[in-house]
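Interim report to the steering committee. The following record documents the input for Putative phosphonate ABC transporter, permease protein PhnE (266 residues).
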Amino acid sequence: MKKNEMEKDILKKRLQSKIIFVILFLIVYISFAQILEFEGIMSFLSIPEGIIWLFKNFIPTQNSLKYLPIILKTGVHTILTAVTATTISGFFALIAAVLGSETIGINRFMKIFTKTVALFFRNMPVVAWSLILLFSFKQSEFTGFLALFFVSFGYLMRTFTETVDEVGEGVAEALKSTGASYFQIVFQGIIPSIASQLISWLLYYIENGIREATLIGVLTGTGIGFVFDLYYKSNRYDGAGLVILVILIIVIIIELLSNKIRKEMM
């Protein structure tokens, strides 16, 4: 009996907690909606109309095919920029990961420094990087490259460091016991043992970089993102729709290739 009563009390408390949470959520939502003058019901009711407008205007037409050559050209530039920026950032991220590793790092200062740098680059939004670099370097391919480089560097540095720490400890200890030097441990032990994981992470962030390159292009005036922004602002919605379709196809193809390469390596 006591056990049943305890279970009922627990269920009752959980139900009360859920009710309180829902009430608090509604109070917060209504309060902020009033402050921002947000008409929630009208906004939700306008969703079907917005979807109909989207399909009416953004479906590529026969006329939009004339934009295809420039879209494909900028699409290739976007892919090359993303691959180049991510690959180069991966190289520097690997150096930083080795120097700042808990298992094979040089010293405590370097470990703290590399973690701080990785934290800074990782938490700076891609939009912020794009705008800062746009003001510094103006509209150019180099601006888009740098934005992708900095964003990829932060994430790759973190994942590479974790990979080195996870896999490298046993390898480092084994090689140290044989009298191997620091560079032998790194280049003949650690990196070969984690090479497949490093490449897998690099491929993943190349995929991610191609997706982010579109937004970066809109902000910095480069690549396929700039073409989309141009067509959209000039009311050539069918052309903008074709850009979206090409971006979707590019992302799917890159993802399929990346997954296939990763499976072959595993």
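The chain is about 85% helix and 0% strand. The committee is asked to note this result when reviewing the revised timeline.
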